[in-house]
Design goal:
Number of helices: 8
Radius of gyration: 22 Å
Structural class: mainly alpha
Number of strands: 3
Number of domains: 2
CATH architecture of the largest domain: Orthogonal Bundle
Strand content: 5-15%
Order of helices and strands: HHHHHHHEEEH
Helix content: 40-55%
Low-confidence stretches: none
Strand order of the largest sheet: 1-2-3
Length: 189
């Protein structure tokens, strides 16, 4: 692995970034360096544009190529702050826009069918996602102490992205699911 990537990986570890994010960023950097056939610090905006176009021809979606550009941008920002790069070639490259997707909620009948077929623990997870809009990581972090079910308006304290807490109302249906199928006395849901 080239020296800059090794240093960047070490820095990301010190920052406490997840191992999977570090691995993805390093893979994109290696792939880009290989495709551009020049060291990372000598890459141009044309190299970035060509790399992203080549990835498109390979069938990589706009959303994924936008993420790849973000990984490259983060590397070059890091390199500039350390004085090992003068400019960020991603800033003037042709980068695909991040697509905006419309939500596609499950239908009421399909949800009920999924809930009826699920084991109790999976039923709770499905109900929290579908009826309260919780993300998978928010459900995984949920603890019994976060469920406030003794008030007129039951709510749940959700520890969301970036550990930013937020309160989410519990519908009567979700509260009934939690009480019926295993709201724990303490600990993780």
């Amino acid at each position: 692995m080239p020296d800059q990537i090794v240093r960047y990986v070490a820095w990301m570890r010190t920052k406490g970034l997840s191992a999977s994010l570090i691995s993805r960023r390093a893979a994109v950097l290696r792939s880009f360096e290989h495709a551009s056939r020049r060291p990372l610090l000598k890459a141009t905006d044309e190299d970035v544009t060509a790399y992203l176009a080549k990835e498109q021809k390979r069938g990589i979606s706009d959303a994924t190529r936008h993420i790849y550009a973000g990984h490259l941008r983060a590397f070059y920002n890091w390199a500039i702050k350390r004085g090992i790069a003068r400019r960020n070639p991603v800033l003037s490259a042709a980068v695909p826009r991040r697509p905006r997707y419309l939500p596609r909620p499950i239908g009421d009948q399909q949800l009920q069918t999924a809930l009826d077929a699920a084991e109790p623990r999976a039923r709770i997870i499905l109900a929290l996602a579908a009826l309260a809009g919780l993300r998978a990581i928010e459900i995984a972090r949920l603890r019994r102490e976060d469920i406030i079910d003794h008030t007129a308006e039951p709510r749940v304290l959700v520890h969301g992205k970036g550990d930013k807490p937020r309160m989410v109302s519990l519908s009567p249906q979700l509260l009934a699911e939690l009480r019926r199928y295993g709201m724990p006395r303490r600990g993780n849901v």
